[in-house]
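Hello support,

Our group uses your service weekly, and this is the first time we've seen a run hang past the timeout. The protein is DOMON domain. I'm not sure whether the cause is the sequence or the server load. Input pasted verbatim:
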Amino acid sequence: MKSSVVHVLLISFLFFSLSMVESQSSDSCASKLTVARLIPFVNTTFLGCLTPLRSANFVLRYAKAGPSLWSFVLSAADPKSYVAVGFSGDGRMVGSSAMAGWITGSGAGIAKQYSLGGKKSGECPPDQGALLLQGTPVVALQSSRLYLAFQLNVDQPPPYLIFAVGPGNGFPSSPTFLLPEHRDENSISVNYTAPGECVRAIAGG
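Update from on-call engineer: The timeout came from a worker crash unrelated to the input. Re-ran successfully.
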């Protein structure tokens, strides 16, 4: 009898532990943004929300923070690499600008803008691009999730967003900070006047 009780308690504990790990490492548009205290400019009440890259558990929250100011928060299950979101006027990667963020081996968060001039790493230089950033981007790691947050000075962001996640343990590094080739990507179009509404876009080259 005691053995059965112990087994039941052990199984219950394992299920509880697994559910706790899953809840800590997951995110969804229905859940509250748990890192809001780390991102001072985020409005956690009036954010639109999308899930654009399910293979990496991407969740993108966005909000119009002012007349010409937009806030973006991208979260993903920690990929041990970089996450990126590009902004394009026609849905093509080439010619667009992107924000990428990652956590270094020492635990430091790094965010950089990239000009996507081609499909090779050397054609996408860091610290260049057409995005007008407001303030300093934030990169944070909490409960096995990576967060990249930034603000753009723009009347309305470009309608196409391009998402990418880097290869495992593929971090941009000094001195070039070039992005290793991504392991997965997706492109969507966003209707900013209808929060959360998007359609899958056909991504060109």
